[in-house]
C-alpha cells in the first residue's frame, strides 16, 4: 500500500508542484487548500504524513498541529510545516506546537522529498516491534537480525523458529510444537528437520547462539 500524504496548502501552484513530484516518487497524495476542511479530513481519514502550511484559510497550520498532538489517535502523525516565513521565531513556534520538521518557502523539492523519507524512516523505527537481549537485536516487522552489530541473514523458517522461541518468554517448546507453529500441516516434516534448522540457526547467530538452549528430553528454550 502506497504512503498517503496530505498536502495542506492554499497556494494552488505550490500544492500541484509538490503533488506532481511526490506522485513521481511513488506516494499517494491529496491536496486540501483549507484549514477547516483539512482538519475534518485528518480526523475522518488520517494520512501517513502531513505537509502543513502555516498560514491557511480557516484553521491555521499551528491550530491544526495543536489539535493533532492532543488527540490520542493522531498524536504520533508525522508533520512537516511549510511556510513562506523564514524567521527563527516562526520556526520555533511551529516546532513547539508539535511539527516534526519545518521548511521555509521557497524550498528545493529534492530537499522536501529527502526530509519526507527521513521522517518516515524515523517514524517507522520508532514504532517497530524490536526485541533486545545482550548483543542480539531482532526487528520483527522488517525481519532483521543484528548480533554484535553484524546483520544475520535467516531463511523465513529460521526466523519463524527464532521468533517463536523469543516470544515464548522462557517457555520450553517441544519439537512437535515447533513443527505445528512453523510448518503447520506439512506431514513431510519430522523432529530431525527441527534439529537441523536449530543447528543452522545457531550457526548463523554466531556469538549469540548461546541464547537458544536445549532442554534434554523436552525441546528448546530462549
Distance between the terminal alpha carbons, to the nearest Å? Answer: 35 Å
- Sheet-strand content, in percent, reads 15-25%
Fold-level CATH name of the largest domain: Rossmann fold
Give start-end ranges of low-pLDDT stretches: none
Question: Percent range for helical residues?
Answer: 40-55%
Helix and strand content put the structural class at: alpha/beta
Classified by CATH, the class of the largest domain is: Alpha Beta
Strand arrangement within the widest β-sheet reads 2-1-3-4-5
Q: For the residues shown, what is the average pLDDT? A: 86
Provide the number of structural domains: 2
What profile does the largest beta sheet have?
A: 5 strands, parallel
Order of helices and strands: EHEHEHEHEHEEEEHHHEE
How many helices? The count is 8
Oligomer state of the chains in this structure? single chain
Q: Gyration radius, to the nearest Å? A: 24 Å
The number of E-state strands comes to 11
Shape: elongated
Assigned CATH architecture of the largest domain: 3-Layer(aba) Sandwich
SSE order and pairing:
Elements: E1 4-8, H1 12-24, E2 28-32, H2 35-44, E3 49-53, H3 61-69, E4 79-83, H4 88-96, E5 101-104, H5 109-127, E6 130-133, E7 136-139, E8 144-147, E9 150-152, H6 156-167, H7 175-183, H8 191-205, E10 213-215, E11 219-221
Parallel strand pairs: 1-2, 1-3, 3-4, 4-5
Antiparallel strand pairs: 6-7, 7-8, 8-9, 10-11
Helix pairs in contact: 6-7, 6-8
